[in-house]
């Protein structure tokens, strides 16, 4: 499915409107962290979700070189273009900015990735890397759009977790000026449902316009109600959890968990 700029704008505005209903809001919210190492401590495969080891969570790392076409999360490519699983310098970096040597998923304009889930989810996390204008996630319940998010939404909420010297860029959404050069955003982005009205069972990953949409280590958490993983008592790593509670749809962020990579000029 292709998204026009107008539809993206409408989606963004409706998201803002939803956040405006403090107290009664139900929505898919997101928060950005650096992510963490793989389950066995891997640091050269990009960043992984802090919830990777949570019960009822499935993680797809693309290391086989293909998208999974059966099992819990069924991926398919729709349209014409060069989207594929690949390994190159644009792979999303690790939690401390380490180079990712593994295969990852790259999506380009015209060829979407559709992920059909066997069950309802209340959480979807991705290692989002080398961020560009026009990277878009859309969450569906059946054929009904629940919410859609773009690179600009991440910027508006405070930006990515780190800006990698491995990913030089230009002045556009998802990038940041560091020592007079632009670098592209990387981080682990957690999308989650705040009520049973906002669970989802289909995800579409799209790129509108030039540049690629690079992601790795997708984590899916099954659930039919509000995602409770960010509640302080149930977070696996307390250090990563503080400040990520959503209150009335508004995020409180703990700035010290954001990192800007220090770069030499
Ligand atoms: Ca990978
Ligand atoms: Ca990109």
TrEMBL record:
Keyword Signal part of the UniProt annotation: yes
Superkingdom in the source lineage: Bacteria
InterPro entries, A to Z: Ice-binding_C
Signal peptide from the UniProt entry: 1-27
Annotated keywords: Signal
Protein name: PEP-CTERM sorting domain-containing protein
The organism of origin for this protein: Fischerella thermalis CCMEE 5318
